[in-house]
Amino acid sequence: MDIHAMVAKISGELSDKAYEVSDSLARIGSEEVLQAMIVLLKNPNPESRYLAARTMAHMTNNAAGLAPLMDAIQDKENSSQQGELLAELEGFDVSDYYVELFKYYLFGGFKVSMIAKDLLDHKDFDITARVIKKATKHWNHYTNNVKHDELFTLKKREVEEILADLQAFVSDES
């Protein structure tokens, strides 16, 4: 299979076979494919950027693509598709990214916040006292910068429960 020709099929103008090509590239899963997808995360076409994230998420050996995908999620150019890109983190080991996902949960729009919360609820993380301290810092920043309405009260209850559970987990580990 000509990987370059396949990558070209998900770069720019997409055909109705783009998802099939993405699946094929993910099955190949080579370092060459991974590097091509990392480059494709910066493609001018938002659909191509999404397919790059999707392809990497379906690859077995995708660890080197996680940091570039996190950069793409944070890129202002991708703000309209932040949720779709964030959802592709499901296919990665995000165990070291609790604080980043917690920030998306707090500060993201509705879709981004819900996707981040789902990842926080269902993925495994390396939780340490430092992670809890950073998460608490972001929570304090959030509480000082948002309107204290009914929605805030609901989120406050949920976050305080999350932080208490994390603290209990770390205390049990010691």
TrEMBL record:
InterPro entries: ARM-like (IPR011989), ARM-type_fold (IPR016024). It comes from the Bacteria. This is HEAT repeat domain-containing protein.
